[in-house]
Specification:
Structural class: mainly alpha
Strand content: 5-15%
Number of helices: 19
Helix content: 55-70%
Strand order of the largest sheet: 3-4-6-5
Radius of gyration: 24 Å
Length: 451
């Protein structure tokens, strides 16, 4: 009973820490489900370079509870607390209960202060990856491999890069077990959810669009555009090396590694590599969850390792915590007073049935002003808009569906390709020729379609 009370207190601590940090409400976590729930097909009617599972789930959540930042925040924190619980159960099975509580405490520290207080596709993969490990550890016989494949497939259908982890695990099972039944069960488990997505894609007639946005765009087009790649700075590399230093020590002691350790290491390698080249700390969320589990095993080998990791955790805290507790006037990023005034402006200047287009404004403004745009909707990023033919498709949508108003935010003084500065030339030229400037509100221009 004391163990579970301690676990409850740790979960409460995690919530307390998250509540003190700025929450990032990525606009896409609201706009993607909003458009999906309003008749926009993924891939065909909107630029969407991810797998669909998270958006399917969010669209259902918002249908029931409504569109709000609070609901997004509750959903995000629920995922994070579920990850705490799954890590506890994994370490409890591998090692012992006391160490599982210590592991959760370390996870709370590293998860919270690596930009963990937000929902993005990376965080959403974590419960599925951990769920696969739970089934592998707690189930017997061939069921463990069937469910392992099933959960890793769900993770990959949340963000396609996780498929690398699934492939590495498959190769490991092929060469380590040499059992056709085991490999077959794992593959069947992975195929089941993938078939669900395939049925959705085929039923909606969007197979070519699905392939284009989820495979061709990330692999072929992203590397072509300036501003997309973002490697860690020297200071960021220092934190990354500090966070992952236990792995180096664990590798030295490779003779102590058993099957579960090797599986964990393969998943760690896959999730770590796919955090680049567009590096942000929040993309490390799957890697950190696996790292903490590996670290717990590493700590169990020697009491000296406990002291070593405690020093690492202390250094990480000294470097990271002050930055996250810097004063900010906005409790929620992308939902400041200025952001709220934008969708209030849009609502006041348009009627309910008017279709609009936002150039340079947050896509969250569509949601909270309850306004739709033409199909296809493509957010104002260079790595979407500069793909040949995309701007013309947007313009064709303006013509066919009668976009009446353009809300155009003045570009920021920065390099032409940066977020907030980029202006898609064909669309800009079309707006200037076919729309009339009405008025300005601070840094937002309102244009109306010419009669």
């Amino acid at each position: 009973m004391k163990i579970y009370l301690s676990l409850f207190l740790l979960l409460a601590l995690h919530l307390l820490i998250l509540n003190q940090l700025q929450f990032t409400a990525w606009p896409e976590m609201l706009s993607y489900p909003f458009f999906l729930n309003n008749g926009f097909k993924l891939y065909q009617d909107m630029a969407f370079p991810y797998q669909p599972l998270l958006v399917f789930i969010l669209s259902a959540v918002y249908k029931v509870f409504g569109y709000s930042v609070i609901n997004l925040q509750i959903f995000t924190w629920s995922i994070i607390l579920l990850n705490d619980l799954l890590i506890f159960l994994i370490i409890k099975k591998i090692l012992n209960t006391k160490l599982s509580l210590v592991t959760v405490l370390f996870y709370i520290l590293f998860q919270s202060f690596t930009d963990g207080n937000m929902l993005w596709f990376d965080l959403a993969t974590v419960p599925f990856i951990l769920g696969g490990l739970i089934t592998y550890l707690y189930l017997n016989n061939l069921k463990k491999y069937l469910w392992f494949g099933f959960f890793l497939s769900l993770a990959a259908l949340t963000k396609q890069q996780v498929a690398l982890a699934g492939i590495l695990v498959l190769l490991f099972l092929v060469f380590s077990t040499k059992s056709f039944k085991i490999v077959l069960c794992y593959v069947l488990g992975a195929i089941i959810p993938a078939l669900g997505v395939l049925v959705y894609v085929l039923a909606n007639g969007i197979l070519s669009d699905y392939i284009f946005w989820t495979f061709q765009v990330p692999i072929v087009w992203y590397p072509k555009f300036p501003g997309y790649a973002h490697l860690p700075s020297s200071r960021e590399w220092l934190r990354v090396v500090l966070i992952f230093s236990p792995i180096i020590v664990a590798l030295v002691n490779y003779k102590k590694w058993y099957q579960i350790n090797l599986l964990l290491f393969l998943i760690f390698i896959a999730t770590f590599l796919t955090s680049f080249p567009r590096f942000e700390y929040f993309r490390l969320q799957p890697t950190i969850a696996i790292l903490i589990i590996i670290t717990a095993i590493f700590i169990s080998w020697s009491k000296r390792n406990i002291a070593l990791f405690a020093i690492i955790a202390l250094l990480f805290a000294v470097i990271s915590i002050p930055k996250h507790f810097q004063q900010t006037n906005d409790k929620v990023r992308f939902y400041s007073a200025e952001d709220i005034s934008e969708f209030q402006l849009i609502s006041s200047k348009t009627s309910q049935q008017d279709k609009i287009y936002l150039l340079g404004l947050s896509s969250m403004d569509y949601v909270f002003s309850a306004k739709l745009t033409s199909k296809p909707w493509v957010d104002n990023y260079i790595w979407y808009m500069e793909i040949p033919g995309i701007q013309q498709k947007v313009i064709d949508g303006f013509k066919q569906e009668g976009v009446k108003y353009i809300f155009w935010k003045n570009p920021q003084p920065d390099q032409w390709f940066e977020l907030g500065s980029y202006q898609p030339k064909q669309i800009v030229d079309y707006i200037r020729n076919d729309y009339t400037y009405l008025e300005s509100f601070n840094n937002i221009q309102l244009w109306v379609k010419k009669d």
